C-alpha cells in the first residue's frame, strides 16, 4: 500500500488487512456526532477544496428527475421473450432481478432466476444452465467474463445477447451491453469524497473499508482517494481491505477495534452499505458513537433507517431500480433490431442521501419518482 505524507491537519495510517475469497460481486443531515462535526468545521476553514466539494455535494443531493434515456424505441416491442437472470448470492442481486421482472412484465416477457452462491463453481454452473436453456437473453451482474468465458462464447455462437451490470468488464465479444461499468461507478467515490470533505470542512481523518476482491469497487475506491486528497489536502487517510465473509459476522468488531486503535479518526467510509450493518450498535456499546461520522455506498434499507435515527450520516443511493429497467430497455431495442448503445451510453441517476433528503426507509426506492412512466413512454406502453 502506498503511503501519503501527513500534515498538521491529519496523519496517514497504513493498515493492511488482506483477505482472499472466491466470492464475486454483484451487485445490489448529519446526526449523532455533533461534537466531532462542530470541532472539525471550526478547525477546517472554507478552503477552495471545500468549496469544490460542496458544489459536487449540492449537485448530487437533489433528487434526480430523469432516467437518463430520452430516445423512444419507436417500434412495437415483441412479447413472449424468455430471459434468464443469473443471481450472485447477495441480496442486491436478487433485488435487481426482482426489479427487472417488474419491467419484463410490462413488456410481456417471462424471467427465470438462476441462483448462485457467488463462487466461481456455482457461477459457472449457472451459466452452463443458461446455455442449456437457450433463452432469448441472459442477464447477470458483477461477474467478470473470465469466470464464464466458455459459456459466453457458446451463447455468442447461439446469437443470444448477454447483458451485464456492475462489473469491471467491457462490452463486446459476447457481452452485448454493460450498464454501470467502471467508467460510471467511479462517481460513487467522488460523491463520498465530497461529503467527507464538506462534513469535516476540510479537516477529516478518514478510514475507507473496502472489499478489493470485488473488481467493480476498485474505481469507486480510487475515485474517493483521488478526490478526497484533492479537496481535503493533508487530511488523514487509511484503507482497510476486508473479505465478504465479514458481512453479517465480525465486521462490527473490526470497526470498533480500528477506531479504538486510531483515536484521531473522524470519518468512516464503507465501499458497500452491507459492511455497516451492525456497526452503529457496536460503536454505541463501545462508547464510540460520538467519535465518528459514517457514509456508506450502495445504500439499502437498514442503512437508511440508521440515517433516520442519526446512527449513520449519509449514503450514496445506487440506481438499482433504474438499472434493472434500463436492462429491459436495452433488450427492447435489441429485439426490435436496434443497437443497445443508446441505453448503454445513458447516464443513470445517483444521489447522496442524508437525514434532510431521505426518501424512504422501508425498501430500496427509485431515485426518479416517475421512472416507470418514463420507461413506459419510451416503450410505447404509456
Describe the structure.
The chain has 382 residues and is α/β, with parallel strands linked by helices. It is built from 13 helices and eleven strands. Strands 7-6-8-9-10-11 form a six-stranded mixed β-sheet, with helices on both faces. Strands 2-1-3-4-5 form a five-stranded parallel β-sheet, with helices on both faces. Helix 9 links the parallel strand 8 and strand 9. It is globular, with a radius of gyration of 21 Å. The N terminus is likely disordered.
Summary, kept brief:
Helix content is 40%, strand content 13%. By secondary structure, it is an alpha/beta fold. The strands form two sheets. The protein has a six-stranded mixed beta sheet with strand order 7-6-8-9-10-11, sandwiched between helices. A five-stranded parallel beta sheet has the order 2-1-3-4-5, sandwiched between helices.
In terms of quaternary structure, the protein is single chain
Total number of strands: 11
Largest sheet: 6 strands, mixed
> What radius of gyration results from the CA coordinates?
21 Å
Structural shape: globular
Category from helices, strands and their pairing: alpha/beta
| Number of helices, counting only DSSP H or I runs of 4 residues or more | 13
Low-confidence stretches: 1-45
What descriptors fit this protein?
40% helix, five-stranded parallel beta sheet, 382 residues, single chain, disordered N terminus, six-stranded mixed beta sheet, alpha/beta
